[in-house]
Write a structure and sequence with these properties.
Elements (H helix, E strand, L loop, with lengths): L2 H7 L34 H10 L4 E2 L1 H6 L2 H5 L3 H5 L3 E2 L3 E3 L7 E2 L2 H13 L7 E5 L5 H14 L13 H10 L9 H5 L3 E5 L3 H4 L3 H10 L3 E5 L9 E2 L5 H4 L4 E2 L3 E3 L6 H18 L7 H7 E2 L1 H8 L4 H8 L3 H12 L4 E5 L1 H4 L4 H14 L9 E4 L6 H6 L8 H11 L11 H9 L5 E5 L3 H4 L3 H9 L3 E6 L12 E6 L8 E2 L2 E2 L2 E4 L4 E5 L13 H13 L7 H6 L1 H11 L6 H5 L5 E2 L3 H5 L9 E2 L15 E6 L4 E2 L2 E2 L3 E2 L4 E2 L4 E4 L1 H6 L6 E10 L5 E13 L6 E5 L24 E12 L4 E2 L6
Parallel strand pairs: 1-2, 5-14, 6-7, 6-12, 7-10, 11-22, 12-13, 14-15, 15-16, 23-31, 28-30
Antiparallel strand pairs: 3-4, 3-16, 8-9, 17-18, 19-20, 20-21, 23-32, 24-25, 26-27, 27-33, 28-31, 29-30, 29-32
Helix pairs in contact: 6-25, 7-25, 8-19, 13-16, 13-17, 13-19, 22-24
The protein binds iron/sulfur cluster.
Length: 747
């Protein structure tokens, strides 16, 4: 960004008069939290996210004239991302191997003509990444539904869809029930399948506050993540000169996919303990007043099969009993989780079991207690609230029709995996992506790339170059848009947008930097102009008004989206407003039973044949989703390498390999047709790492080719990226010298 630009920009990050971090969705401190927003209210990865967007590097027509698509496709994701901000619309016409500049109107003509030429609107899919603002998301879903389809896949399909499905079924609302203050006032925080040190770093400050208040933390993870061991907070003297704060009081190094068995055993221990001392452990008043199906649940919970539990979890009974005692001694328990729970076959069952555990002691709708799925994308929750979902309820669709005098489709659309399947089968012929990096974020890379190349049209609204741009359809367009850090001037003046964080706080974000190019359009302007071109000038929705003044969109949101009444007034409050959450707000559970539902979930641990490992895909510390900031995964002691597979040293020896060997990683998956499907990812260096025995890890998107399209979670259809059975095959050139691995990892 350069020094001057950095000095002007970072002080605005996560500030009330500034812009929301384009990184994760960890909330900002509110006035209610004692108004302790820091001058530097951001973490290292937030600064990197801003630097990526506000870079001074630029690419335009000359860049694309120099680089053919075929040449660009050979480049790494890291290299592509480092080329700079896109500055003008580009088109790749059928048969050409270079992107060429195109005017905005001509671009919208091409898109509209291709979409209109489809046999049905359901042959198109409209993807959304979690960076899209509420205003753009609301306008986009309206455009898509007015076009005639509900094919609105989004990045949530690949991350917290399982959380939404489980929470909606059990407590009636698909989002977390805690505020930042609840987390920080909990006396026990369970962190399951999450690495906040890399993926939600400001969360460490909150965990530090839990510790300073005498609270305890339990970390459950197949990997000993540094960020959950000790935190040196750079905002405190003790963090700079001292040894910082020890975080996890208990680290349960669980076997991949063992969380369901662990949670069931913990619930069983609580029920059995209460049998010994009725009313001393379980919150019977809460259970009787607010829950459903406790008796059936308790019956099966008491029957703990310890041999199966220890096998599935890889944990000893003593440790599980220790954690159960911590739960019994806790008055305010919060359970936080991320992809380590959501990207498994039984992810929904596992998260239902989290709810069971908390219901037993009345830990929902209580200050300092509750469920906390931590979102990885800054506005993924807001986009869903605005209607970016392929299965919106009738009430929402009816409200749209009433508000705009339009007719919208009722047939549910396709989520991301179904869109990929549809492309593969030739039933989806066009993809329009609002942000994101569809080709790299999705599983089964070779299948995905073939499917994308088979499309008649691919359109990406982007700020920077990425893999998806070099996996084009017959006709491909890149539409450059404003970043979150940039001023958004429209006819009525400078605009602000709104986002919703992981704790349901909706607040404003105002870009301050001069746009990277005069040829950029905002997301809202792109949607508005495409709608006018696609739906015609006589369409009942006043699209041009959306672009002229975002208040117009917000007034519509206020009348259509539940919980968003008086939207314009309330988002102008310094801290915005908090979306309603009946379980949190009033212990009201809008479920089918009208109560919080206990559920019975039966673990089916993944069978791993001899000589195989169970692999999870994950981020390095130097990446954000598919954006690679750099090649330094320093907390794991890995530098200058991304094609690495982390394996326990004892497993390496048992498999007859050595640290540093070069291998192909081959996944094996029992397909629905009963045969074993294989996927290969070549040239990975084995890195000896203290993973749980039998478990391995590799970075995505490099490991995404190993996750077959059909490997999805029950109910949520989320790709099973955290539990892939793999074998390692030796490579002829056995060792890779380039990567540097410091002894840090042996700690
Ligand atoms: S914790 Fe997340 S939202 Fe906060 S500054 Fe870091 S990346 Fe951004």
């Amino acid at each position: 960004m350069g020094i001057g630009r950095t000095a002007r920009t970072l002080p605005l990050l996560n500030q009330r008069a500034g812009f929301d971090c384009p990184g994760c969705a960890w909330p900002d401190p509110l006035a209610a939290d004692g108004d302790r927003r820091k001058a530097a209210e951001f973490c290292e990865n937030g600064a990197k996210a801003v630097a990526e967007e506000a870079t001074i590097r630029r690419i335009g027509a000359d860049f694309f004239a120099r680089h053919s698509v075929a040449e660009l496709a050979e480049r790494t994701d890291y290299w592509l991302g480092q080329q700079g901000r896109l500055t003008q619309p580009m088109i790749l016409r059928h048969g050409d191997d270079h992107y060429r500049p195109i005017g905005w109107d001509a671009a919208f003509d091409v898109i509209a003509e291709n979409l209109a030429a489809l046999g049905s609107p359901d042959e198109a899919a409209f993807y959304t990444s979690g960076r899209t603002s509420n205003e753009a998301a609301f306008a986009y879903q309206l455009l898509v539904r007015c076009f005639g389809t509900n094919n609105l896949p989004d990045c949530s399909n690949m991350c917290h869809e399982s959380s939404g499905a489980a929470l909606t079924e059990t407590i009636g609302v698909g989002t977390g029930s805690v505020s930042l203050s609840d987390v920080e006032h909990a006396d026990l925080v369970l962190v399951l399948g999450q690495n906040p040190g890399t993926n939600h770093p400001r969360m460490l400050s909150s965990l530090e506050r839990v510790k300073h208040r005498g609270g305890r933390i339990v970390s459950v993870n197949p990997l000993p993540e540094t960020g959950l061991r000790r935190f040196k907070n750079p905002q405190n003297l003790s963090g700079i000169v001292g040894s910082g704060t020890a975080l996890a009081d208990e680290f349960a190094q669980i076997r991949i996919g063992g969380d369901l068995a662990l949670l069931k055993a913990l619930s069983g221990l609580l029920v059995l303990a209460d049998d010994e001392a009725p009313g001393w452990v379980l919150d019977h008043e809460f259970i009787e007043k607010h829950t459903h199906a406790f008796t059936e649940f308790a019956e099966q919970a008491r029957d703990i099969d310890w041999a199966a539990t220890e096998r599935a979890t890889g944990l000893e009974r003593q440790q599980i009993e220790r954690i159960a005692r911590m739960l019994v001694e806790s008055d305010r328990t919060v359970v936080c989780w991320a992809m380590g729970l959501t990207q498994h076959k039984q992810a929904v069952a596992t998260i239902r079991e989290v709810v069971n555990l908390l219901l037993l002691r009345g830990m929902i709708g209580k200050p300092g207690a509750g469920v906390c799925p931590v979102r990885g994308h800054s506005n993924v929750q807001g986009d869903r609230t605005m209607g970016i979902y392929e299965k919106m309820p009738e009430s929402f669709l009816h409200a749209l029709e009433r508000e705009f005098g339009v007719t919208v489709p009722r047939a549910h659309g396709r989520d991301t995996v179904e869109v990929l399947r549809g492309m593969h089968e030739g039933r989806i012929k066009a993809l329009v992506a609002m942000g994101g990096n569809f080709a790299a974020a999705t599983p089964d890379t070779e299948v995905t790339e073939r499917a994308l190349r088979g499309c008649a049209l691919t359109v990406h609204v982007s700020t920077k170059l990425n893999r998806s741009h070099v996996v084009p359809g017959n006709t491909a367009l890149i539409l450059p848009t404003l970043g979150r850090t940039e001023r958004d001037g429209q006819e009525s003046g400078e605009q602000f947008v709104t986002v919703e964080d992981s704790m349901s706080v909706v607040h404003a974000s105002r870009g301050r930097l001069r746009p990277a190019s005069d040829h950029l359009l905002s997301e809202v302007a792109i949607v508005s102009r495409l709608a006018r071109r696609l739906l015609g000038a006589q369409h009942p929705v006043r699209w041009e008004e959306f672009e002229r003044d975002y208040d117009v969109i917000r007034d519509h949101i206020a009348r259509v989206v539940p919980g968003c009444e008086d939207y314009n007034q309330r988002v102008r409050q310094p801290d915005g407003f908090v979306m309603p959450h009946p379980p949190r707000d009033s212990r009201t559970f809008p479920t089918e039973s009208g109560r919080a539902n206990f559920t019975v979930n039966v673990p089916e641990p993944v069978e791993v044949p001899d000589g195989r490992l169970l692999l999870q895909t994950l981020r390095s510390h130097d990446q954000y989703n598919t954006t690679i900031y750099g090649l330094s995964d320093r907390y794991r002691g890995i530098e200058d390498a991304r094609r690495v597979v982390l394996v326990n040293a004892d497993d390496i020896a048992a498999l007859g390999f050595a640290d540093g060997d070069l291998v192909d990683v081959v996944s094996e998956w029992m397909a629905a047709h009963g045969g074993v499907e294989e996927r290969r990812a070549s040239r990975f260096r084995i890195v000896a790492y203290p993973t749980a025995r039998g478990c391995a890890a590799a970075y995505y998107p490099e490991a995404n080719p190993l996750v077959p399209l059909g490997a999805v979670a029950e109910k949520s259809n989320t790709p099973v990226s955290k539990a892939v059975v793999v074998r390692l095959e030796p490579q002829s050139q056995s060792r890779l010298r380039s990567a540097r691995v410091s002894p840090a990892r042996s700690r």
